[in-house]
């Protein structure tokens, strides 16, 4: 007599064991997991094919996007509670030698194969060679378009009126997202020592929030550069609407094409993650060459908590769904490269907890505008964003990633940094 066929619920219990926080309800009528846990419904063998043919984060995302897996009662716009309470504890155990034949039979009976991939998933890294080598101009433009060219309206709903897609700085625990984003731009302006008549270059300017804030409140003239055509169009329209034409410009293009020099300050807010660690020396050298003597550079970017694992992001979900070709380094490596590029580093700070708050605020916006976001960008894209924002919050809270601002100056040949004896940016407010 052949052995009885193992059910999905039995397979889950066998290979995950107790304490997962999940209750599985499967298409074959079986159940498994914790009786009082978060209910997850497995709708078909196709779901199992997704789950068994990829890394855990990508496998779950594929099944979720294909509607083959449902977390009952989960807020799709803000799945943070589920991720914290369940998914971080979900780890399969290694089967014993005795269990391998039974596992093989179970896999054979479901007809194991790789199903069609969701359209929201970027090609595997080796397939991106069609765009050239990693961090070449064409491939960088494709990666930026994958993430940023969703829809300006979608970003308006998720990011809020500031349209700032970088870590905010919360001046106090009760501050709103908009207050915190303004405080971030203002802190950058003060660290750069901006004053009327100065010239600012903002690379990776997004929708132009930093450019507009600096021009309106500090009296500078500013040039922002972005690889995203959607961002450039939106930002330039806002400049014209706010009467800043002639003092502010948002340029669609690669920062490497900026020919102007002699800037008093350069801000790089959220760009370093996209350029590749091996390009840091050329990047910081290029920006230094855009500064006058005594000019300051502020680099604001996501970092690793150490300097031993610099380079390509290893998380398959991030690489396939949110930031293709994204790379991170520890702040120590960034400081070292800035110094070797001729910049004198004068200050750095870690804003990790602020980014956890920021991603939570974005997730709350996504949840509050869920139906409109789905109508604008599609349910699949909106779901990716929900998972991405929740996962980012978890990673910042648990010190998996950090956010550093590093401030440097182009010191003159005779050693003059034009620097005050003590920092002057704390406690100041923007010029109104």
From TrEMBL:
Which organism encodes this protein? Ornithinimicrobium ciconiae
Q: Per its UniProt record, what Gene3D superfamilies does this chain match?
A: Vaccinia Virus protein VP39
Which processes are annotated in GO (biological process)?
A: lipid biosynthetic process; methylation
Domain of life the protein comes from: Bacteria
Give one GO term, molecular function aspect.
methyltransferase activity
Which family, according to UniProt? Belongs to the CFA/CMAS family.
Question: This protein is called what?
Answer: Methyltransferase domain-containing protein
Report keywords, A-Z: Lipid metabolism, Methyltransferase, S-adenosyl-L-methionine, Transferase
Domain Polyketide synthase-like methyltransferase, by residue range, is 154-408
Task: Please report a single Pfam family linked to this protein.
Answer: CMAS
């Amino acid at each position: 007599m052949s052995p009885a066929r193992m059910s999905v619920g039995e397979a889950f219990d066998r290979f995950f064991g107790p304490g997962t926080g999940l209750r599985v309800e499967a298409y074959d009528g079986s159940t498994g997991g914790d009786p009082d846990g978060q209910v997850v419904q497995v709708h078909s063998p196709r779901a199992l094919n997704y789950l068994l043919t990829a890394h855990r984060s990508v496998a779950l995302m594929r099944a979720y996007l294909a509607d083959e897996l449902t977390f009952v009662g989960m807020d799709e716009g803000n799945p943070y509670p589920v991720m914290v309470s369940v998914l971080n504890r979900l780890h399969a155990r290694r089967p014993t030698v005795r269990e391998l034949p039974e596992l093989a039979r179970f896999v054979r009976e479901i007809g194991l194969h790789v199903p069609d991939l969701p359209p929201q998933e970027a090609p595997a890294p080796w397939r991106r060679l069609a765009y050239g080598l990693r961090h070449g101009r064409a491939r960088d433009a494709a990666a930026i378009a994958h993430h940023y060219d969703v829809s300006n309206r979608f970003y308006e709903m998720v990011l809020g009126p500031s349209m700032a897609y970088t870590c905010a700085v919360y001046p106090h625990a009760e501050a709103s997202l908009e207050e915190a984003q303004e405080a971030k731009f203002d802190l950058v302006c003060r660290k750069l020592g901006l004053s009327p008549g100065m010239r600012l270059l903002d690379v990776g300017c997004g929708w132009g929030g930093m450019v507009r804030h600096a021009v309106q409140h500090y009296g500078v003239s500013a040039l922002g550069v972005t690889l995203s055509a959607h961002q450039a169009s939106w930002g330039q329209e806002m400049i014209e609407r706010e009467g800043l034409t002639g003092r502010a410009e948002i340029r669609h293009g690669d920062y490497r094409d900026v020919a102007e020099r002699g800037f008093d300050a350069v801000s790089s807010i959220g760009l370093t993650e996209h350029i590749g660690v091996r390009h840091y020396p050329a990047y910081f050298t290029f920006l230094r060459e855009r500064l006058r003597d005594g000019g300051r550079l502020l680099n604001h970017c996501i970092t690793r908590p150490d300097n031993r694992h610099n380079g390509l992001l290893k998380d398959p979900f991030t690489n396939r769904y949110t930031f293709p070709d994204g790379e991170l380094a520890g702040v120590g490596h960034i400081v070292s490269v800035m110094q070797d590029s001729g910049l004198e580093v004068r200050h750095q700070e870690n804003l990790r907890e602020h980014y956890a708050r920021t991603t939570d605020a974005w997730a709350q916006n996504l949840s509050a505008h869920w139906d409109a976001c789905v109508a604008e960008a599609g349910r699949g894209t909106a779901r990716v964003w929900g998972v991405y924002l929740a996962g980012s919050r978890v990673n910042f809270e648990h010190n998996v990633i950090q956010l550093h601002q590093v401030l440097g100056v182009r010191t003159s040949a005779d050693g003059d940094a034009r620097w005050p004896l003590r920092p002057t940016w704390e406690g100041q407010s923007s010029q109104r």
